Predict the 3D structure of the following.
Amino acid sequence: MMNLDKYRREHADIISHVQQLKRLSAQGIALQAVAIAREVIAMSSLIKLHLSVEDRYLYPALQKADPALAAKALQYQQEMADISAQYGQFSRQWNDAQRIAEQPEHFRADANRVLKTLFERIGRENREFYPMVEAA
């Protein structure tokens, strides 16, 4: 049985960054632009690390599992590639306080779209995918 506690802890950390971005945005995007940019940068390094560990260890290990789980793992990995690309674009665009301050509504729209996708994906992994892996 695979221990996924580390992945779950990283998920919780990512979610807390998302919540902090929401709090900062509610206080005023232009006003909190420096803190928001710092939060985006911190979250990005956490997400990059999490994804690389999943790609290097979790998914390859699951390819050796039973065919149903291997297929599900492949599906999750392929979906994540798209979400990861969207998030990468978001983090490159919004890691700059001046840009955030100059385009607060553009930042808000991007954050709502990208972070909602990320949040939903983490929820699905926690609720559906990880329990399936642990049951295998």
Summary: The chain has a mean pLDDT of 95. Residues 5-135 form one domain.
